[in-house]
Amino acid sequence: MNVAVANYPFTTINANIGTGYVRVKCVHEELGVKDNPVNSVCQDGIRLIPVRLVDVAGLVPGAATGRGLGNKFLDDLRQADALIHVIDASGGTDEEGRQVEPGSHDPARDIEFVHDEMVSWVESIITKDWARISRTVESGATNAQTLGAALAEKLSGLSINESAIEDAVRKLRLKGDKPTAWTKEDIRNFSTQLLEISKPILIAANKCDQPSAKEIIQKLSGSIGKSHVLIPCAAEAELVLRKASQAGLIRYLPGDETFSINDRSKITAQQMKALDKVAEVLKEWHGTGVQKAINDSYLRLLDGIVIYPVEDETKYSDKKGNVLPDARIMRKGQTAEDLAYKIHSDLGNTFLYAVDARTGLRHGADYVLKNNDVLKIVATAKRS
Fold first, then answer.
1. Cα 341 vs. chain centroid, distance in angstroms?
2. For residues 336 and 369, what is the distance between their CA atoms, to the nearest angstrom?
3. Cβ distance 201 to 82 under 8 Å?
4. pTM, whole model, 2 decimals?
5. Is residue 303 within 8 Å of 331, Cβ to Cβ?
6. No. of helices (H) and no. of strands (E), the chain
């Protein structure tokens, strides 16, 4: 996918939807088989699992009230499970997206205002009909006997479910059965907690390879390290590596901490100079951080685990004979039945049991999935 890349405000206007990959160690070596994936990629024992990424327009202060592209930005985020907030760790871009002297801007301010704008966005949705909702909950006049049930439909467009709502109420020790007694501060704190649960944020500290970035990143790690996942990134270095790899000049897999040159005779002096500079970045930061940001978003923020569904548990294959054809990212705590629905709604509706390909044991619908499970889903035949 080709998208505009430039160093000026609002280069991105319409959301760019693309595919990234979560990188994990594949199970085929442990199982002693040679795999041939269909819906993912395996290279040198590394499984690359496709995931959906959406690049949205930048946010400026006042976005929650519609300033800049605020309404569009927030609307594009509705279906996101997690957010990667890319900041300029060199301090060379201000909160309006304008270039300034490197080191002159504190990106901690960007982190704070984006968080505040998003909380204000959620808060505005909740408070719009709060009086009626809170009275309904307390009166028990409808089937919505709990605040979670009453708010779930209103917030469903933000991919916020009843469980997240009830979790936020519980963590803040608010009285879910007495919402009319909540103060404005209670609602603000509730909106904040709800956002942290339903749309966790990872900070990608880009331009970590710039001279002014190291000190800024150290300060950020000390000030926000406990409340946010912070990953130093060098996107430009990653781009150089991707292009060189695609051209066949080097061997590099996203997330590697090093690369190897295939044929020096095919590399110009200028290209070699660029690769040498990138090699220094990889050595100092143990990679470009780009792949780590994607991995940590899915596997750390979202508690992701990897499951390998198969149709023939004895051969670890699908019905066409493809070995370990697919790898699915599920969440810790999800069940075998959840996996069935993830594969296909019909499979979930007719679920009988799952077979563990390693042990041959049968698991019921409530079996809690474990990382690197290889499972066959057995269902009843669907009637025509």
1. 21
2. 6
3. yes
4. 0.88
5. yes
6. 13, 13
Q: What does residue 235 show for φ and ψ, rounded to 5 degrees? A: -65, -35
> CA 88 to CA 14: how far, in whole Å?
21
Answer whether residue 183 shows pLDDT above 90: yes
pLDDT tens-digit map of 326-374: 999 999 999 999 999 999 999 999 999 999 999 999 999 999 999 999 9
The sign of the CA dihedral 242, 253, 308, 204 is negative
Quick check: 103 and 88 in contact, CB under 8 A? no
Residue 13 lies in a domain: no
- How many C-beta neighbours within 10 Å does residue 87 have? 24
Q: What is the pLDDT of residue 381?
A: 79
- Map tokens 């940001």 to a residue: 293
Q: Which two tokens stand for residue 80?
A: 């996101």
Residue 329 lies in a domain: no
CB–CB of 336/364 below 8 Å?
A: yes
Q: Which amino acid is at 96?
A: E
Please report whether residue 136 resides in a domain: yes
What's the CA gap between 90 and 212, in Å, rounded? Answer: 5
Residue 134, domain extent? 129-198
Cα angle 108-110-115, degrees, rounded to a multiple of 5: 100
DSSP string, 103-138: TSS-THHHHHHHHHHHHHHHHHHHHTTHHHHHHHHH
Q: What are the beta bridge partners of residue 99?
A: 93
* pLDDT of the residue at 191: 95
Domain end, chosen from 152, 169, 198, is at 198
